[in-house]
């Protein structure tokens, strides 16, 4: 019986490998890249040793290539423009959001100050 599955990435119908019982992705390069990325996200979220190792490797790479992002931004005008527009959007959202102020909320006093009848006998019983 040849059953087909729908690829979780590209949504194409494919014949699964009979040896892979839980196959969810086809063999296209982009779909396999998506499968690996999904696996890595889950691994980073659940395995603290893997997460620490990944962070250490990224830090080492950044130490070996300190000028990478500066050069990347210089070479890629489209990246700079996109980043500039996204930052403007973030700034605009931040300005629109009302700031919390301490003096906005007036204190609510449940009991009004004054002298109450019926309470004076409690004060003189000591």
Would you write up a description of this structure?
The structure is a single chain. The chain is mostly helical. It contains 5 helices and 2 strands, in the order ββααααα. The protein has a two-stranded antiparallel sheet with strand order 1-2. Helix 1 packs across helix 2 (48-64). The model has no long low-confidence stretch (mean pLDDT 86).
- Major sheet: size, sense and barrel closure? 2 strands, antiparallel
Query: How many helices in DSSP terms?
Result: 5
Instruction: State the strand order across the main sheet.
Output: 1-2
Give the percentage of residues in beta strands.
Answer: under 5%
| Radius of gyration computed on alpha carbons | 31 Å
Low-confidence stretches: none
Overall number of strands = 2
Helix/strand-derived category reads mainly alpha
Features:
single chain; 5 helices; two-stranded antiparallel sheet; 2 strands; mainly alpha; 126 residues
Reconstruct the topology from this structure.
Elements: E1 5-6, E2 13-14, H1 29-46, H2 48-64, H3 68-75, H4 77-96, H5 120-123
Antiparallel strand pairs: 1-2
Helix pairs in contact: 1-2
């Amino acid at each position: 019986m040849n059953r087909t599955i729908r690829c979780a990435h590209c949504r194409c119908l494919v014949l699964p490998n009979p040896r892979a019982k839980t196959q969810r992705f086809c063999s296209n390069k982009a779909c396999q890249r998506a499968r690996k990325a999904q696996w890595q996200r889950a691994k980073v979220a659940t395995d603290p040793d893997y997460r620490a190792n990944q962070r250490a490797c990224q830090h080492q790479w950044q130490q070996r290539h300190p000028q990478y992002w500066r050069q990347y931004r210089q070479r890629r005008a489209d990246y700079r423009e996109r980043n500039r527009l996204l930052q403007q959007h973030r700034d605009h959202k931040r300005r629109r959001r009302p700031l919390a102020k301490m003096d906005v909320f007036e204190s609510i006093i449940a009991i009004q100050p004054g002298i109450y009848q019926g309470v004076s006998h409690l004060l003189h019983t000591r």
